[in-house]
Each structure stands twice: as structure tokens, then as C-alpha cells.
Amino acid sequence: MDYNFSEIEPKWQRYWREQKTYHVENNSDKPHYYVLDMFPYPSGAGLHVGHPLGYIASDIYARYKRLRGFNVLHPMGYDAYGLPAEQYAIQTGQHPAITTERNINRYREQLDKIGFSFDWDREVRTCDPAYYKWTQWTFLQLFNHYYDEELQKARPVSELVAKFEKGDDRAPEWNTMSERERQELLMDYRLAYLADIPVNWCAELGTVLANDEVVNGLSVRGGYPVERKLMRQWSLRISAYAQRLVDGLEQVDWSDSLKEIQRNWIGRSEGAAVWFPLDVKANANVLPGAQAYMPEFAPEPTPSFEIFTTRPDTIFGVTFMVLCPEHELIESITTPDRKAEVEKYVTWAKNRSERERQAEVKKVSGVFTGSYAVNPLTEERIPIWVSDYVLAGYGTGAIMAVPAHDSRDFAFARHFNLPIRQVVAPEKDAVSDPSTWSESIDAKTGYSVNSGFISGMKVKDAMKAVIDRIEDMGIGHRTVNFRLRDAIFSRQRYWGEPFPIYYKEGVPYPIPEECLPLPLPDISEYKPTATGEPPLGHAEVWAWNEKERKVVSKSLIDNTSVFPLELSTMPGFAGSSGYYLRYMDPRNDEAYFSQEAVNYWQNVDLYVGGAEHGTGHLIYARFWNKFLFDIGMSAKEEPFQKLVNQGMIQGRSNFVYRSKEDNRLFISKNLIKDADSVTPIHVDINIVDNDVLDIERFRAWRPEFADARFELEEGKYICGWEIEKMSKSMFNVQNPDDLVAKYGADTLRMYEMFLGPVEQAKPWDTNGIEGVFRFFKKFWRLYHDENNSFCVDDAEPSKAEMKILHQTIKKVTEDIERFSFNTSVSTFMICANELDKLKCNKRAVLEPLAVLVAPFAPHIAEELWHLLKADGGSVCDAQWPLFEERYLVEDSFTYPVSFNGKMRFTLDLPATCTQEEAVAAVKAAPEAQKWLGDKEPKKIIFVPKRIINIVC
RNA sequence: GCGGAUGUGGCGUAAUUGGUAGCCGCGUUAGACUUAGGAUCUAAUUCCUCACGGAGUGGGGGUUCGAGUCCCCCCAUCCGCACCA
């Protein structure tokens, strides 16, 4: 073979390693550019062809930027803590560190074969103590800071304490409080805090999970059921940053869909908080319990409770109130005759699993408390119900129900036969009888009706008028609510970062920063302890000696100088939330990263990764970065300036069809008469080529197929195919190593790009890879003669040759700039085809061409570059060729000539041709007679260098 | 239900500002060279039609000399969220 990739590729990979070609310094006269990939979790299965898609795209961009004179930071590392390694440890007893290390080595081997330009000197691993020292450090900073609502930024807790000492409404009794009471109060402010909160408990995994780790009541990892449970857990007060997380989206260059996913997840909604007084006379006996709900500005103290609504304009349509089953008021307001029923409902509702609740969303359930509230604007008595369609975690866990204009309230009212009153109409007089409605009118448009002083107003104006009124009355105010919850930060697992926290009488205290990292201890068993403690409960040496400032044996715990350490570990997103900053200065032992480094690199210019991280990692990382920004660490408020989501690569499965009558007989796809007469069976895509089954390998594949017989079409067995997820069980996993071995890394890289736009999801189909491979053989031949000897000509290239080169420069440059790599590949193919036709082997064309192709196919480019310039150094440091317009200028243009908008023929005309000349030429053209005849054109459209259109 | 995206040959796709729809590649067909080829090269390949010609970018309407591209309505598929008041 002429183009010998298997010789070229290892050679240059070695050269790059030895020359440290991809090593990057933190200072340079060149402009800086930071290209980052989402680092992988090193799974035992290794890489499949879907993983490198984004890495290849970012590598092309990084290499391109470098060729354009940028100092490019392009690092890679591993998100090495995580559940699979630990699950494997539970099964085998193998330490997760060992399997993780093994998987990392395998990943590295696979990545190296593809020829990425990563600076491996900057590699980070989240499970490395030198790295997680800074994860723990950041946690301590979060613990020691609170969110100052006035300044809208994080400030040290010590400042808050100083305020409390001076006297503050938030802690009027601070100076008389005990240490324990003070610590408990501060927990309400710390950005990392310990609290009894309802968590997502997954019994199978033996741990709690964050909201983004649970989908439809099942864990994302493993798909195990998740229940709600009240537990004392560490959380991050990410909700404090909700507004800034929404606002920041305006400044970044991300896809609209991803921004929208984030906005939905944060779920900002504007509305009003309104206090509804209880009907005291009817409930005189419940007064004490309701005192806590007294409004601050009420004209006279009235027991009340607070609700949140986004539709204050519908307040005249309230016909009942609903409390969530967890609401504290329920106990005190339930009338004796309703007590048994309410208690039964509340118990039932609280014990339902998340999965049950979510599965039965459409089922209406609830119970009347027997008590009433008073509508503050109409002074009507309104019954108070309890139902689990009101959620404890959102707003105040209580709502005013307006069944005419809220579909959930509507369903509830219909089910329990409660009144429905229309207060909004699309037109002022379009009022109808709600009992005839099949659904509520939820739209925030139209006019208020039957609504006292706001009747006749547009919905928008009515909202404002009602809020103004309730603010005047002192019974409520304008407010904003967020759906985003605080992130649960404890995991009852082993393979994660230990918390640098110890406990004195149940009160958490931080380990001094200077003592970090607090290393993860070895344990004998990876399961929870017999008493139900997390796995770290098995660790023998796991207590903190406060005086000696070191970890000591648990047996020494005396709760005077030696204290127990926290047994939970941090979740996966702890280590991945700030890794991009650590790459800037990865070996720094004094700081997370130096100010010098962060001020040089600023933030990530281009981040490439999957859209599945939209509600998890990308929210956490933005929060993490904003916090570090507040405390003066990170240089920019947003971590990732531009973000590109690579589409998921799906698998393309192949099927054979087994006859139901004879289970040794397999029928070729197009011979099947009745689809029901055969059973489709997944077949390994590695024994199928272009949907043709390799019969011998099929027989050898599994014992039960050894004596298989076939009904063939034209001597071949044709398989069926379907697009499915790429997975082992479907036998459709394509391993990149196999393709690198068969075609080389350059072909794999180029083919992955050729598949289609990077952002688009697409099935993996090896059928086209031959075309790319042929291109490289052709490309190689441009630089070589029939005997495969390197052969370029120093002669002046022709005009046509220069035109092809510059067309290619222009197109490829523009394509890379807009991340359209698939079109660049076809441009290279066109270029090679044309130069081949012209038998062009001019140095002045081929040299720039080698540079152009280098970001895509670095190995062949490096080989050709060294053949072209014996002492030219690496092609990575060449100069990107510049496009010159003059090579594209032509004297003539081939005009498409249209009649009534339909293209009929083309006409070569001088580039400088005027409309008159063009029309004359068209009329003179013999083809025109057919379309024009004797008629005179009614109108002529002449667009220079575009088109001639004759209307007749 | 709400939000986002996408619909173009047998297949992956291209057409950047409204200007020759189908570039490039796969596959297929025919041919050349070959002992042979799953190597290489040449040609053809949207559909209907012998042809002339006609139709054609999910469907329907509109704007325009001209629409894959702009506007309105509808359909399908995929993704995200989902009792968030």
C-alpha cells in the first residue's frame, strides 16, 4: 500500500511526545485561547466511537487556533470518582483505585491512538489527593461563606457574625445564645450547610442523590427506585445564586436549546406572596398553632398563612385553598370532625414513593380540613383543603386555587365538586358558564371579569393593580420564586472526596485548611456498616485529633480532643465543578490555581461536550465558578464562554431473521414474505459488512448458530438494520481501536467529522468510511509519483491550480470558524479530486494544503510536512495559509438563464457584462427561441454574477 | 401539557445574505485494467416519461420576477421539563 498509515501514525505520535509538541506555557506574547472537552468518567467498557466525536471537533479547533498564532490550552483529565467502580468493588473486593487506574490507562491508550493535541502534563484526576485537596478546600470556603442578599454575593460568615454581635433583626438574641444555638443559626446561612431535608434516597445504591440524578423517580445510574426521606445531609445553597444563574445565560454563547433547558431547570417565576387570614370565628380553637403565620404588617394581628401565586389577577376567582400534606398548619386548623380523615390522608400521602406519586399525577386526591380562610379582597370564606398536588418544596407549600384558570385546580374542583368562577375572559364580554367547560382557561391574556376593581383591565395590568393593592394593605408583596433546589452534597458512598469536617457534640467543625487534603482512608468492605453507617464507618483510622491536627484511630475518640470525622463523601459533581480552573495551574500545591494563571487564561473560550449535562454539571460548574468569582478566585463570572454540544452517536444494529418454523433457518431480508414468520435477532455488527452477513463468522459466533442454514439472495445474506442506542447488548458497539487499526487515526478523525454536523445526533454507520480512506490515498498520491517516491515540483502553479487552493483555503477557514467540519471534509475531497485531475504536484499548492489538512489529519500532514521541509519543525507550528481574493477572480461568469423562474439553460458571459448586453445575449441564444418565441419579455431581472430571469 | 430542535434521493448529507436543489461520500449499475479482487480507474445514478417535457426539499396556503431558505396553519419524529401554583 502506498499510503502507509500504520507506519506514519505511531512515528509522529512518538515524535510529538518526545518533542513535547503539545506542551503549553502559561505565558506568551501570543493571544490565549482555551479549548476544553468535558472530561470522561473512565468506565470499564473503554471508549466507543461516540466519545471521541467531540474530542475530535475540539482538537481540530485547538490545532487551527494554534496555527493562527494563538497560545492554546487544550488539556484532558479524568472524572475518576464514581459509582460504577465502587459497585464493582462491592462485587469483587477490588479497590476502586485499582480498577480506576486500569480504566484510565486503557482510556489513555485509546486516546493516544487518535492523535489528540492534549497537553498531558496538565492531566488531572478527581480522585488524586493533590487534586481533591482543592475540592475539599472549596467546600470549606462554601462552609465559611454566606450569601449577602444586599450585595448579591458571597461574603465570609465572620462578617455575618460581626453583624449579629452588633445587633441584627435576623438574630436578636445572638449575644445570649449558646455556641450550639449559634452554630445552628449559622447553618441557615452557610453556602454549604447541614440540614434535615427531604432527600432522594436510593436504597439499592445505599445513598442519597441530587435532583438531576433522579429521573421519573428512578436513579439515573442503574435505574433503581428513589424515595423521599427526611435526612440530615450536606447541601449547597445553589438556590442563592438562582437569579445570577439565569442572568448569566445572557452573556454566554450557548445554543438556545441548552439555555432553555437551564432556564426551565432554574424555573424563575414572578408573582405575589399573599397572606390569607384564617376565619377566626369558625376556628377559635386553633388560634395558638396559627400564630406563627401572623402577617407582619396586618392592620390587626390575625392568624394567617402565606401563599405564592403567579396569577394575582385571578384572586377574585379563588374558591378554595390547598395546603401540601407536609404543611405545619394542618394539625392546628383541622376541625375535630375531620381529624381522622385528614390524618389518614396525610399519612398516606407522605408515605407514597416518588415513583408512585409521579406515576399517578393525573389521579386527583385530597381532603377538606373543615376550616376556612378569608379572601382578603372579597372577604369571602374559602374552604381549606389538603392535597398532594401542592408540593412542599415550592413556594410556601400552600396555594390559592382558581379552578377556572388553572388546569390542576380545575381538575381538583371537578373531582370534589367545588365551585368554579370565571374571572378572566378572552374578550371583555366573552363570559360563559364554567360548568359547561371541558378545561380551564390558563392563558395569561384577555381581560379581568367579575373581579371588583380590576374588572375590565387587561390581565397584565390587573396583576400589577392587585399586587399594588395587597402591598398597600400590608398583606403581601411582589416576589420571585425559583424551581431550582439546593443541591444535596452528601453521598453515603466510599469512592468520593471525604468531607474535611469533624463533629463536636453533633456540631460540624471544619478541619484547618493547612491540614488538607484529608485523604480517603482504605477500608475493608465497601458496603454500609451493620449499624447502617456509610462505608467510611468501616475505617479504623478515622477520627480527628484537634490538638495534634491529624487523623487518628477511632478508638481514641473522647469528644474532648479527639472527635469523629464525617462519614459521608462528596458527590460526583464535586470534583467536576472546578476542574477547568485547575488545568490552568495543575501542579500548584499552594493554591487551587495562581492568580497569575487565571488572569492569563481567564475562562474557557470553547467547551465541547454532551447536552445531557444541561441540568447537572453545567449548573453546578457555573455556580461553583460564580462562588469562586465572589471570593476573588476566578477571573470571570461565567466559566464557559462558548459551548458546543456534540450530538449523541447512536448505534446501527444489524439483524438476522430466524424462521419461526425452523429455528436453524435464516432468511435473507428481502426474501421474507411475512414479517410475523420470522424472529429478528441482533447480530454483531463486526461480522456484517455493508449489511452483508459473513456466514462463516456467524456460524462461529455462537454455538447455537453452528449449523445454521440460510436462504440467500444472489448468494448473499442481507441483514436488516435499525437505529438504536449504542450498547453491548445490541451488539452494535463500534470500538475506535478497530477502526484505527484498519484505516488509521486520520481516517477515523476525518470520517467522524464527515458524518454530519457535530451538534446533530446521528447513527454510527461504518459504510462510508471507505470513501474517506480513498480520499487519503488520493491525497497521498498528490505528493508522490507512480513508484510512491515523494515528488513535488517547484514550478509556478497555474491559475487554475491556485484557484483551487484558494477556494479551499477560503472554505475550510470559514467552515472551521463556524464549526462546520463535515463541509470542510467534502471541500478537501473536491480539492484533491481537482488537483488530481490537473496532475498538480506544485510545491506552492501542496505545502499550504498540508497545513490546511493538519488540524483534521495531523499524522499524514506531519509526514508530508517533513517531506516538504526537511528542517521545518512540526506542522503544528506552521502558519495557516491566508486566502487571497485575487486568485478567485474570473473574467467570465456562467449565468443561469431562467424563464418565469425556471432555469432553462446557462450562458457564459463576461464578468463585467451589463444588463443590456446580457439581454441581447439571451435573445441571440438559440435555446431562448423555445421559451421566448416571438414574445417580448415583460420583465427582466438581471443580478450581476447571480442570475438572469426573463418574465414573459 | 409546556419548552426546544429537526423533517431534502436507496443512505449520511450540501446549498453561509431569497438567485442553477441534490455538492461530497456511501450504495447501486455499466465499462476498463486484471489469474483474481472487497484494489484502481472511467461513466451513469431524485422521481415519472422512449422522448419532448413534467413533478419535486413532511403537508396545505401566502409574499416574491424567483422560496429548501421569509410569513401563516397543520402533521411527524427526536430531545428536555413535567402537579413548580
Task: Give me some keywords for this one.
952 residues, alpha+beta, Isoleucyl-tRNA Synthetase, domain 2, Isoleucyl-tRNA Synthetase, Domain 1, 4-stranded parallel β-sheet, 4-stranded antiparallel β-sheet, 29 helices, 38 strands, 32% helix, 20% strand, globular, RNA-binding
Give your account of this protein's structure.
With 952 residues, the protein is α+β, with helices and mostly antiparallel strands. Among the domains are: 268-480, Valyl/Leucyl/Isoleucyl-tRNA synthetase, editing domain (Isoleucyl-tRNA Synthetase, domain 2), CATH 3.90.740.10; 660-721, no CATH class; 739-887, Orthogonal Bundle (Isoleucyl-tRNA Synthetase, Domain 1), CATH 1.10.730; 890-951, Ubiquitin-like (UB roll) (Roll). The chain has 29 helices and 38 strands. The strands form 13 sheets. It has a four-stranded parallel beta sheet, covered by helices on one side. Helix 19 (617-630) links the parallel strand 25 (604-609) and strand 26. Helix 22 (745-754) crosses helix 25. The longest helix is centred in the N-terminal third of the chain and has 19 residues, at 96-114. It is globular, with a radius of gyration of 35 Å. Mean pLDDT is 89; it is low at 286-299. The protein binds one RNA strand of 85 nucleotides through helix 9, strand 11, strand 15, helix 14 and strand 34.
